[in-house]
Design goal:
Largest sheet: 6 strands, mixed
Strand content: 35-45%
Bound molecules: adenosine-5'-triphosphate
Radius of gyration: 24 Å
Keywords: ATP-binding, Hydrolase, Nucleotide-binding, Transport
CATH architecture of the largest domain: 3-Layer(aba) Sandwich
Number of strands: 20
GO molecular function: ATP binding; ATP hydrolysis activity
InterPro entries: AAA+_ATPase (IPR003593), ABC_SmlMolc_Importer (IPR050093), ABC_transporter-like_ATP-bd (IPR003439), ABC_transporter-like_CS (IPR017871), Mo/tungstate-bd_C_term_dom (IPR008995), P-loop_NTPase (IPR027417)
Number of domains: 2
Helix content: 10-25%
Structural class: alpha+beta
CATH topology of the largest domain: Rossmann fold
Distance between the termini: 35 Å
EC number: 3.6.3.30
Organism: Thermodesulfobium narugense DSM 14796
Number of helices: 9
Shape: globular
Strand order of the largest sheet: 6-7-8-3-9-10
CATH class of the largest domain: Alpha Beta
CATH superfamily of the largest domain: P-loop containing nucleotide triphosphate hydrolases
Order of helices and strands: EEEHEEEHHHEHEHEEHHEEEEEEEEHEE
């Protein structure tokens, strides 16, 4: 039985409608919600927290129907981008203030000192919010919410105002705290890297509808639409026509799909028929480079020769822009650039594993 369940939720706020939202979370699981601006992410969290009552559908927390419970009775903690610390209270007073506003919550069984230590804010207790950095304010806000011992936690882009380094540090700490306390959480973000780092499950919302939700690996590997593929940062997306479909096991097919002059071999569980128009998605990290002399893959399909048209460094990686019958972007490391003598203008062989090409039906 799931720990938290949303069943056919419909909520109308002004002219905006969240509709047909259903998902389940197990205890300790984190769901990351991704979606463009204005797609209804905040309204979904606000509806779960109790700021808007459903027009249809139900919410269950530990099998209890909380759909129409007032906010303070739901035992759900939340933390939004706006830290909302009380400016005239010091850090300690701010943290303890949450006890005043959480009378409906269970007796505290998290030790406040432990939370303060976990969040490394022991030395800030006498300071006032005005004298804290953005990251420190978020730590205090998190401590203040955590010590009320909520059953579940909602985060609405809590890191978006922070610089990259602080955000990454806080994100890692947050993940370890949530896992340590076995807290279920829903985390809204624009950032697909953040979503895949934090989420056990990832959900994508568009125009008030949850268009895909699942285990993060499933979403990562098998986006169900061009919109999702694009939104989760898949850079290689192009059209193709199915040429042949051969069943190779009860659930798997070996499929040939043609894009311009290139025929890709794909292993997939999608049911398709010849002449169907589809999109192919390939993650840039799934493209391998081969040397001219490399004979290991000689009898395999999916070896293509393309021209390197640009090389761009991104953090520790290099993005290689490839052009020919298909335009692809590959991600690789400095070592591989050296090993394969990759430079602009060079024609290079690449290989893509048939299992790493994903077919998106149109
Ligand atoms: N209280 C409200 N009354 C009326 N309309 C609202 C209200 N709150 C939000 N909306 C509208 O509902 C839509 C969804 O808003 P929401 O804040 O949930 O989007 P979001 O996905 O969180 O966007 P962002 O990423 O920009 O924060 C928007 O068109 C917004 O203008």
């Amino acid at each position: 039985m799931s720990f938290f369940k949303v069943k056919n939720l419909k909520v109308k706020v002004g002219n905006f409608i969240l509709d047909n939202i259903s998902f389940e979370l197990n205890k300790g699981q984190i769901l990351a919600i991704l979606g463009p601006s204005g797609s209804g992410k905040t309204l979904l969290l606000e509806s779960i927290a109790g700021f808007h009552l459903p027009d249809k559908g139900e919410l269950y927390l530990e099998n209890k129907d909380i759909s129409i419970l007032p906010i303070e009775k739901r035992e759900i903690g939340f933390m939004f981008q706006d830290y909302a610390l009380f400016p005239h209270w010091n850090v300690k007073e701010n943290i303890l203030s949450s006890f005043k506003f959480s009378k409906g919550y269970k007796k505290i069984n998290i030790n406040p000192e432990e939370i303060i230590k976990m969040l490394h804010i022991e030395d800030l207790l006498d300071r006032y919010p005005n004298n804290l950095s953005g990251g420190e304010k978020q730590r205090v806000a998190l401590a203040r919410s955590l010590i009320t011992n909520p059953k579940m936690f909602l985060f609405d882009e809590p890191m978006s105002a922070l610089d990259t380094r602080t955000r990454e540090n806080l994100r890692d700490e947050l993940l370890s705290i949530l896992k340590k306390l076995s807290l279920s959480a829903i985390y809204v973000t624009h950032d697909h890297i953040e979503a895949f780092t934090l989420g056990d499950l990832v959900g994508i919302i568009k125009e008030g509808r949850l268009i895909q939700i699942g285990e993060k690996n499933q979403i990562f590997r098998k986006p169900n639409s061009i919109f999702v593929a694009d939104f989760i940062g898949i850079e290689n997306l192009f059209s193709a026509t199915i040429k042949s479909v051969k069943r190779i096991s009860p659930e798997l097919y070996c499929i040939e799909a043609k894009h311009k002059q290139i025929v890709f071999e794909i292993i997939s569980n999608e049911k398709l028929s010849a002449n169907e128009e589809v999109f192919l998605s390939i993650r840039s990290e799934d493209i391998s480079f081969l040397d001219e002399s490399d004979e290991r893959y000689n009898n395999l399909k999916n070896i293509i020769t393309l021209e390197v048209i640009d090389i761009v460094q991104v953090d520790f990686f290099y993005k290689i822009f490839l052009s020919g019958d298909v335009h692809l972007k590959a991600i690789t490391l400095k070592d591989s650039i050296k090993k394969h003598k990759i430079n602009i203008g060079k024609k290079i062989k690449i290989y893509i594993d048939p299992e790493y090409i994903h077919i998106i039906k149109t």
